[in-house]
Amino acid sequence: MGFLDMFCAASIPVLKVLIITALGSFLALDSINILGQTTRKHVNELVFFVFNPTLVGSNLAKTITYESLISLWFIPVNILLTFIIGSVLGWVLILIAKPSQHLKGLVLGTCSAGNLGNMLLIIVPAVCKEKGAPFGDSDVCSEYGMAYASLSMAIGAVFLWSYVYHLVRVFSEDSGSNQTETVQEDLTLPLLPSSESESSGAVEGKIKAVFAPSTIGAIVGFVIGTIAPIRNLLIGTEAPFRVIQDSASLVGDAAVPVVTLIVGGNPVKGLKGSGISIPLVLGIAAVRYIFLPLFGILIVKGALYFGLVYADPLYLFVLLLQFALPPSMNIGTITQLFGAGETDCSVIMLWTYGLATISLTLWSTFFMWLVV
After folding, report:
1. CATH number of the domain within which 126 lies
2. Are 131 and 148 spatial neighbours (Cβ–Cβ below 8 Å)?
3. How do residues 234-258 score in pLDDT, each as one tens digit?
4. Would you say which domain of life the source belongs to (predicted)?
5. Domains in the chain: how many in total?
């Protein structure tokens, strides 16, 4: 299989994301104002409470079984390593660039948390359907690819809302921002800990954040998928209550295009500028698109050498891809929830997703060549 075929197979999914993102940017222009700031805020709430949980839960319920969960044990380990290595590299970047206090959580979050949900759900099935892809039958590839992507999305959601959420919260509070209470009142989010809470309230807030809607959706999906009697009631063409699963899938399918549109709309605000320095943004891009993928190659090749993962090209491709993704779109949601660093996050997303059109295509092409 030639390099050009692989390059075409890798570029099509990225172009799809780019087109939808461009549409979001167009809708967010002041002259259009269909996807303005107020609209994005309310749509973000809808994504947070409805679309993301149902997307995670419905995909896991359909694609994950107890047997597959056991065989895919390295995916959570691999994702944990992306967060750990990304955090270390992000902290090194902070020591070098010395950003302001309220930006430290945002820098650590964007360096550690990749877009393990939307991007994988778009890229993996799209790659499977391309003629130049080296992963065999497209239907079989899509089925297994959705299982890998769904598990990645669920594990990534747990880490994001239990780790990055608190990074942004802690550093925004340390910077003396008084916007958190206002945002809490506007959104009336039960999971946001009160700034006046004592230690017991803080612990309760952390527990609620860990069990954010996406995490609850993941738990529900795991329960349905791995417990055979429940799975037989809900999953499959003969399942008596399959209408419930079908309805959840219908709602969850809206998450990918809606969040991608929001990602396109948020950077429009970033075009107007912010206090974040361009070298810092490029440093984040270097962490995500140069250093993390290189670490990923060492880790996945090492795991394969020691027999920790099986030598399936698609499986290895997904593991490698987890290290090369742009920052999680939901970090923008987190900054909006706290009212801290929203414009700065928009600038980061503008640059990193713009650069992702090149880096993700090149890394995807190289990863295909590496695993075949």
Report:
1. 1.20.1530.20
2. no
3. 998 889 999 999 999 999 888 878 8
4. Eukaryota
5. 1
